[in-house]
Design brief:
heterodimer, A: alpha+beta, 4 domains, four-stranded antiparallel β-sheet, B: alpha/beta, Rossmann fold, Helicase, Ruva Protein, domain 3, two-stranded antiparallel ribbon, 48% helix
Chain lengths: 666, 305
Amino acid sequence: MTPAIPRISLIWLLVAQALVILPHLAHLPLWFTGLWAFCAAWRLQIFRMRARYPNGLAKAALILATAAGVFWSRGGLIGLEAGTALLMATFVLKLVEMRTQRDALVLIYLGFFAVVTAYLLDSEMLSALYSVLPVTALLAAMVGLQQSRLAMQPWPTLRYAGKLLLQSLPLMLLLFVFFPRLGPLWSLPQPGSKGISGLAESMTPGDIANLGRSPEPVFRASFEGATPPRSELYWRALTLEHFDGRRWSQTPDLPVLATDSWQAQGQNLSYSILMQPSLQRWLFALDTARTDLPGARQLSDYRLVNVSPVEQPLLYRVSSWPQVVRDPELRPTQQRRALQLPAGNPRARELAAELKARYARPEQLVAALLTRFNQGEYFYTLKPPTLSGDTVDAFLFDSRRGFCAHYAGAATFVLRAAGIPARVVAGYQGGEFNRQGGYVQVHQFDAHAWVEYWLPERGWQRVDPTFAVAPERIEQGLEAALAEEGSFLEDSPLSPLRYRDVALLNQLRLAWDNLNYGWQRWVLGYQSEQQLGLLQRWFGEWDIQRLVIVLGGGGVLLGLLMALLLLKPWQQRLDAQQRVYRRFERLLARHGVARRPGEGARDYARRAALVLPQQARQIEGFAECFEVQRYAGIASDKGQLAQQLRALRRALPWRLSRLDDGETTR
Amino acid sequence: MRNKLDACLQAVNQVVLGKAPQVQLAMACLLARGHLLIEDLPGMGKTTLSHTLAKVLGLSFQRIQFTSDLLPGDILGTSVFDKESGQFTFHPGPIFAELVLADEINRATPKSQSALLEAMEEGQVTIEGATRPLPEPFFVIATQNPVTQSGTFALPESQLDRFLMRLSLGYPAHAAEKALLQGQGRRAMLSRQEPLLSHRELAELQQLVEQVHASDALIDYVLRLVEATRSQPQFAWGLSPRAALGLLNAARAWALLANREYVIPEDVQAVLPAVAGHRLRERADPSGHGGSALVQWLLREVPAL
């Protein structure tokens, strides 16, 4: 007879299940809610004795149907999403066939596991805080399961669970700080790229305008020392060198830049960047940058790239030297790439020829081009008209309305047509300075494109045609630049970024953002390197081996101490008689007669003698001897008992393994 | 001395047929100076057993039939005005006997019950300001119908605790009942029964019980049993220290009846159902009769060694 599941435990289990499933719902197929409601209702009916447990057939049908459902809605049974869906389905289905305490325990452990898998899908601070709720409810179900005096009352059960959780808090912190961050033992394919927008490897002018509508965060940067003015914050992501008449795209397979190809000079900016997953390999940095991120490299266009696409928030430190001269000499292939132009756009070429005739020096030519943008009837807008045919011509001479990418693309075209090597740089510009946290938050709408042109010996020079059209975009941000048009984030009416002029809301938003940054930086970003750094700061410059030995040794010592305290071996001192008796018991148990806990020596011997009639004399002799020594209060020779045991051992056939009770009594 | 005990048991067993274990328990109870409660349906031989015990042990015997209109004075006795001497003289009640059979104790009101129970505990009674000692030895054998029968007042737990043991006789076995039907009337047998023990011998036996050795290991076992009843959740309440003492004494008497000079765990286990059964209640059913199931649990689960 196995113990049934108490009512309170069942209630808490159902509550816990709801809490566990809730954060998963967004990632689960719709029909899952129905399955869950069905199973919960069935379980309740079983509890009210109005329904029966499913039989084997029904169980098999349920499992097959669920697996088929997952396969159908997730396109397979392998992968993170399908895997979680299967896990959650098991979690829900187990509810129906849960009969005994053991089943309920299985369900509870599954629940803990499901809580952890939620972190795979979402590691925000709020969701981590939320997981305290299901864990508490699961603990309460576990407490209720143990048929204690709390088994009848829901709230004390919950309070007890909460107390347990609070008590485990110091241990949690300790483990968080000291537990070694092991590399993953297996890897799950990460969720697909859908839903993550950002810069792409090629750009038509409209692309960045689309990004300009998105309030998603891209990265945060915190500077050591003063944060530079925002007009200096040109975060390079990639360069676009190839133009096909419509689309700017990057040169594939750029060579890696050797570390000694440029020398640090001038002032240095040090900062760390916490990047949101972009599923791209490039990293964001100010010019000209070096990072200590392992495996990161610098390509020949001076951008930084990671070893693999960034799939999780990534924290890296960068040092930038803005005054470094990049490429004082250009190799012929580079020159060719920086001058490449497709046919077409005759009016732009005409303009280039005209400018070239008037200004001998490239700087003058660039300045004249910027003046043209500044003085001519050019407008900065998020909603540029659609262009066709010779897009550069159409923009420069007809529509004259565009976003940064229009200006950067057109300027690059004209410069190239005038024989000046130039390229489009895509990245982000500016960002929002969070005063409380002292960091810069960059959103997708900070996406930007600007121009670099090359001068002999002075290398690549940055020039931003957007600045000539809409200086407020660079100095104050997109919102100010679009103030007249009113198109800033008009597609996201709920985004708190829209309400930056409400002081209280803005304060709250910035504080919340700061909190999230701290979470990502100090909790999610606390990986093995940071751990080692912290430990070394506390314990001095020890190497890993020594740290592991000391910490591991300390842990083992602590465990031993706790074991001593809990098990109290000094209280379980067995006297000599008892030790001999234990040997007697073990001997007989091997022959199929195990003593029951409530059985006295005499009853046991009698039963054993019935099972082993040939050794009855020795068995009873030993039991009598033990009884007299133990209960009669007659001090006698210790050896006598051992002697009796030896006699019994000799009389019994030699047997090493244990004999089942049933075998001899059958 | 030992032979005399055997002879006593044998004599009782000849009158009360087929109930050897209960007879032995009843004897152990009396040797341990405890009072006995016999609970069973009417007509199962409760009265016969107690009457036989009184005869065999040579004790003066009084029987009080408890009814719902019984008054404390009917048990303890009253002072009656004597016209000739012009004074009140005390007429002792049936309680002043060495073995008192309180028949169907649960038919009387709690007031009358408590008059008896106080006498059991103190060994003396106080009537009209004068304290009068009860005879020595003094035993009470109470019988009661199962409380589920109508017209009964269940004994409260505090009073149940004063009985060392509670026994239940149960229906006789087939052969025993046949012998009973074939044999002569019990009443006639009883009247012919001669006492087998003198008061002195009985006192000596009671002395012997106290001398039976209980080792440390055994007392540990008794403590384990008692502590289990206090710590395990299924018990509504634990055994009292009086119960623990009673258990040990009863086990000693049982050991003496088994002709042993020391107590072993099996002795404790033999008397445990009778000693603890009426003192324990299940938490889930505090008014019910879960005691014997709990005792079985104790016997099974509490480590004996």
